[in-house]
Specification:
alpha+beta
Length: 129
């Protein structure tokens, strides 16, 4: 009986620690359900280009986002990756401002996602389009 109780407690503790680790990770499931459209703003060298993606393009975008390997990073105020001059940014506004996520490119080794005020370093950067 004691052995069964110990095994049960160990399983519960492992489950809880796995859940705690997942809270620091970005996942496509964190985005709203039923995404109908995404407004994309691309910023590069002071120039802004904007377009909307729908339908099959949404599936491609979601697949790209899902394929990124990320880990949460903490930065001091004023030292976030978005504070770097000369970078490139893709801003994705979902369903007319229900949610948004940004992809910040500060060189090959400096790519990040920004979602709900949390920064995530991207270890396998690729351009979304």
């Amino acid at each position: 009986m004691k052995k069964s109780l110990l095994i049960f407690a160990a399983v519960i503790l492992l489950s809880l620690s796995a859940c705690a680790n997942q809270s620091n990770k970005f996942s496509i499931e964190m985005l709203p359900n039923n995404i109908e459209q995404v407004t994309v703003s691309h910023y590069l060298s002071g120039e802004e280009t904007e377009w909307t993606i729908k339908g099959d393009e949404l599936e491609e975008w979601e697949s790209w986002l899902e394929g990124l390997s990320v880990r949460q990073m903490n930065f001091e105020e004023g030292n976030t990756p978005g504070d770097v001059d000369g970078g490139e940014v893709y801003s994705f506004v979902i369903n007319s401002d229900k949610s948004s996520v940004s992809y910040v490119i500060n060189g090959r080794d400096g790519c990040y996602l920004l979602f709900e005020s949390k920064w995530y370093a991207v270890s396998n950067p690729t351009n979304p389009f």
